[in-house]
Structures are given as structure tokens and as C-alpha cells.
Amino acid sequence: MPKLRGEAFWRETLRSAHYVVAPMVDQSELAWRLLSRRHGAQLCYTPMLHAQVFLRDANYRRENLYGEACPEDRPLIVQFCANDPEVFVQAALLAQDYCDAIDLNLGCPQMIAKRGHYGAFLQEEWDLLQRMILLANEKLSVPITCKIRVFPEIDKTVKYAQMLEKAGCQLLTVHGRTKEQKGPLAGVASWEHIQAVRKAVSIPVFANGNIQCLSDVEECIRKTGVHGVMTAEGNLHNPALFEGRNPLVWEMAEEYLEIVQKYPCPLSYVRAHLFKLWHHTLQVYQQLREELAKVKTLEGIVDVNRELKLRCQEEIANQKEGEKPKEGLPFFHWICQPYIRPGPKERCKENGTRGTEKGVRGKRALEEDEDGNSELLSKNKQKKKLRNPNKSFDPSLKPKYAKCDQCGNPKGNKCVFNMCRGCCKKRAFKETADCPGHGLLFKTKYEKSLLWQSSQTGIQNPEISQRDVDVGETAVLKEADDAAS
To answer: pTM for the complete prediction?
Structure first.
């Protein structure tokens, strides 16, 4: 069967999906996807997977994709981050039989993406992206799609989208924020950029950004003309968003926990989901928030969820007639509802810190001022301080490591090549050399092997032929090759 493209792919394979759950690291796992599908989601993405790790690690493949087959979890798109065409395509080939399309992440704005050189930090490298998409479009049996962030300029964003389409992208998801818009600086996504892209390309377009309820979805489709709308935060706080409902939090939490019993996932994922669902309630019951953070088993999480439900039901029973939600919430805290991220100024007020001259105080700036004063420490570091009062977060006290000449990772202190172990192993094998600092003895083993070969041939035949020596060298090199791999 020929590979479907563009509109035909969206209509037939993706079943004209309008309601889409975004790829979310450690959050869009199978159990959550199934919950979302039960409540209106028509298309889901896997969490972002690292192509390099997926290619080399069988356990990573099994945990993230090759687990229990679930026919209800379709249509499904697998998303990869990558910066090498061959690695990306090889990983995609291993995944294509388990999904309906492969997505290339060009939208992750986080610092880890900058360090790893992927996501939104590839958006200026058009030649590389063209090669990646062209190769994937040629080699894969399923369509290739992309998720991008916009440039500040609409014209450049449009040209970027057209370049991806020309390279072979069959569906484009446009997040209407730049890579600098994240965290407390996220701001409002630009639907104007998304609308311009939709008009400029012939492939289907999904919009991402500013989606908190079903009316936002409908308004976005009407204003931008996109084929579908993707949401992340909105879905995490209300899995029934696409149904246009605001259910009781414990109903969603209990249903999710039941699915997790059937399709297990790491406890950290479950905990994170409950923190999102119960976000507003946990501001009221701080003790239960601490318990949820500390619990070590799924049964323990179920118990905390049950206790939160009981507290809310007691509050409902004692509720006075005409009482309104507190803290400016649209609904009472036990009802699934959007969470609006505070801006930089509001976040400063929440943390009890004074703003900078411009009224903006970023996380990095805050960490630079940390000198042990708990008022300036993040909540996570305050917890670490409680467990270890002598712990210091002063950057000047951190140990300094010399860097590997090859890759920039910390080098071995006694490495003869001034490299990390991985780079040292490759070089030592290539040059048949020793590095006692890393315990790599390719040269020594090679010489011992030659001596042993010589002694054995000497017993059988006093005259060592050149052919015997060559055979010995081949065997030793094969052994060294096995050790290096």
C-alpha cells in the first residue's frame, strides 16, 4: 500500500483528528493517552524520545514503545528528538511498525535541548533539517511530521514552514511561541503566526498554544483555519477538556489510577499527574501535598488520592449556600480547571523576592544570589537543605573538572590522552595503545597475545611463518574490537 501524504494522510490515517494531545516528556505515557482518548482526544503523541538512546538501548525501546500492545491507542505518532539524519532514520525505522507517523521535535525550548543540540535549537540549521526530513521521507514506510516553534518574524516563520513542507514533511504542528517564550516568560502564543503558516502551506496544520478549554479550541480553529488543535497543559489539568466538561478531580484521578494498574508506568509519572490534577486542592492541603511528594508506592498514592477526595467531600458537605470559589478561581478547587502560569512579577511576589529593575527575576539570576539564605533558595533546594543542613549551593565551592579534549565531558585525571573514558577507549583501540588511568590495556594485551602466539607456533614449528603472525594479529584485533564495542 502506497504511503499516504498530506490531506489524505490526515483524513484516512489520522481519521480527520481535530483534538490532539501533545507529546509531553514523562507525561504522555500510555496510561494517560488512554485516559485522554476516553474523554475526547482523537490523536495522541508519545513523549519525546531520544533517537540516539532509542537506537542503542533495547530497554528504552521496550519501556517507551515496545510494551503491551494496545489497539485503543491509535492513531499514534511517535516523536523523536535528533540532530543526525542517519541516527534519526535508524531510530524511526525501529519505531515505524508501532505507530502511524514519525514526528521530528523542532520545538523543545528547554536548556537540555540547547545542550543536546536538538528541538527548537535546530531551527536555524535549515540544511541539516532538509537532509533529515528528506532521508526520513525516502526511507520510512510511514509519513514524517514536524512540530515547530515560530520565529519573531511572520515572514521567516512562513519560509521555515515552506522549507519543511518541500523537504517532505506531511503534517506540521505550529506552537505559536518563540523558543525564548517558556516558563514564567511564556506569554501568549501568536495565532497570527499560525494563521499565516496555514495559508502558506498545502499540508495539514495543527495549532498549539493558548488552549485551556473547549471554547479555546473552537475559537482557534475558526481564527486560524487549522485542521486540528493540540494541547499540553490544558490536558494535564483537565483530561476531559475536549468533551467540554469540568469533572470532579477525583473522578479523573481514580480513573487514571485504574488504567495505571493495567498499564504500569514509573511512579514519578503517576505522581506528576496527580500533582497537576490536584494542583489547586494541594494549595489548600499542604500536608497532603508533602505526603504525595514522599510516598514510594502506587498503593500509597492511591491512599493520598482517597484522603484528598474525603477532605473535599467534607468541604462540600459544610459548604454554605452562595459561597464562591476562593483565590479568584473560576470553579471550586476540587473541580478540574485551567492553571494559569504566573508571570515573572507574580512569581516574584509568590516567592517573596524583590524584582530586578525591570521587574523580572529569572531562575538563573536567583540562583546566582544564593548564599545559603533559605529565603533565596528554590523550594527543591530548601528541601535538600532540611535533609542536609551543611549542604551549600555556592557555585564557587563546586569542584572544577578539566574537560575532555574531544567532547567536553569531564576527563579522567590520569588519562594519558586527556579524554573522558568513552573517547579514550576509541582512541586507545584505534592506536592500539594503553591508558592505565582508565584501565584500558589494548597494547599490552596485543603484545602478550603475539608472545603467546609465537610460543605456540615455536613448539609446533621453530620457524614462524608470516601467515601465522598475521592470523594472530587478526585475532587480537578482533578481541580488542569486541572490548571497545
So the answer is: 0.73
